[in-house]
Specification:
Layout (H helix, E strand, L loop, with lengths): L1 H4 L5 E4 L5 H6 L7 E4 L4 H4 L1 E3 L3 E5 L4 H5 L10 H7 L4 H6 L2 H7 L6 H7 L3 E6 L2 E6 H4 E3 L2 E2 L6 E8 L6 E7 L9 E8 L4 E7 L6 E3 L14 H4 L2 H10 L5 H20 L1
Parallel strand pairs: 1-2
Antiparallel strand pairs: 3-4, 4-9, 5-6, 5-9, 7-8, 10-11, 11-12, 12-13
Bound molecules: flavin-adenine dinucleotide.
The site of flavin-adenine dinucleotide has 31 residues, from strand 1, helix 6, helix 7 and strand 9.
Length: 262
């Protein structure tokens, strides 16, 4: 923390280097100092609590894909991890690095708000907790202060009756998404959330999404999806391109179908 917070030094934490590495290569990022955080054991640990699981920021996508962490999400996290890039990227890329990088087309910036996850953020001043949906402010911009790092992500435990769907459109494996949509419903907690991502800014997170589906969650809800209501949400975020709008609506309809069929 001291190395990162030193006055007058532009320091960056280095995790899997899957995004920062290319940015350094291209001189898009020119920090004075890189601080490798991957050997900090706390950032690699996972703690299983009664109502939530804390996933250390340096846990890799491959760790999630391979089930090396406790699953709080009834399979959603592993499903998402499996579709991130290629295995070589997943072996090194980390959940915290992905959130801190805040590429709008990345997977965790959409999937974790869908689950109502929180980011545990530390600095020499102490720790604060903020919803992942508030961590990403806009494209590649976060609410992190200069001396703050993400310590872990807190994922609430979904009940066994929770249902989800997650759709991502990309032309081939390893490409970033052109559209992302997710639906999550847990009857035990009354969560009914929708996320629409890959929209060139922070994803749209709808906390009570029942109005998009005629007021209820069931196996036919994808047929009731209110396209106009989704369009309004997209326009509020300045998504005016008709092609992008239709991709988002189609992705959401497919995610709803997947969730309803489980
Ligand atoms: C070819 C390729 C394809 C990809 N495809 C996808 C894809 O389909 N979907 C997807 O979601 N991602 C994709 N990625 C991104 C990849 O999955 C990584 O998640 C991402 O690069 C960032 O994670 P990282 O650990 O490598 O972070 P790094 O590259 O090390 O760091 C990224 C940024 O986050 C900061 N940072 C890192 N850790 C922390 C922390 N704990 N706290 C605060 N700041 C931190 C760094 O300072 C830097 O600014 C792809 C990457 C590549 C190279």
């Amino acid at each position: 923390m001291t190395l990162l917070g030193e006055e007058g030094v532009f320091a960056k934490p280095l995790a899997g280097s899957q995004s920062l590495g290319p940015m350094l290569n291209l001189r898009i990022a020119q920090p004075d100092r890189l601080v490798d955080i991957t050997s900090i054991s706390e950032l690699n640990s996972v703690s299983d609590n009664r109502d939530f699981v804390d996933i250390g920021a340096c846990v890799t996508h491959a760790d999630v894909e391979d089930g090396r962490i406790v699953d709080a999400s009834m399979g959603l996290l592993a499903f998402v991890a499996r579709k991130i890039a290629y295995r070589a990227v997943r072996n090194r890329g980390t959940i915290g690095g992905s959130l801190a990088h805040s590429d709008p087309a990345a997977d965790w910036v959409s999937a974790l708000p869908l689950l109502g996850a929180k980011a545990l953020v530390v600095s020499p001043k102490g720790e604060r907790v903020l919803p992942v949906k508030s961590l990403m402010v806009s494209s590649f911009v976060t609410a992190l202060e200069r001396d703050e790092i993400i310590r872990a992500v807190r994922v609430p435990k979904a009940s066994p009756s929770a249902r989800w769907g997650f759709t991502k459109f990309n032309r081939k494996a390893g490409e970033f998404a052109h559209a992302i949509a997710g639906v999550f419903h847990d009857p035990e907690t009354a969560d009914f959330r929708v996320v629409i991502g890959a929209i060139e800014t922070a994803p749209i997170v709808v906390e009570d999404a029942s109005f998009l589906f005629g007021g209820r969650f069931d196996s036919d809800m994808h047929e009731r999806l209110d396209d106009n209501a989704v369009l309004m949400l997209l326009k509020e975020k300045n998504v005016d391109d008709v092609y992008v709008q239709q991709l988002a609506i189609t992705a959401l309809r497919r995610a709803a179908k997947q969730a309803g069929m489980k």
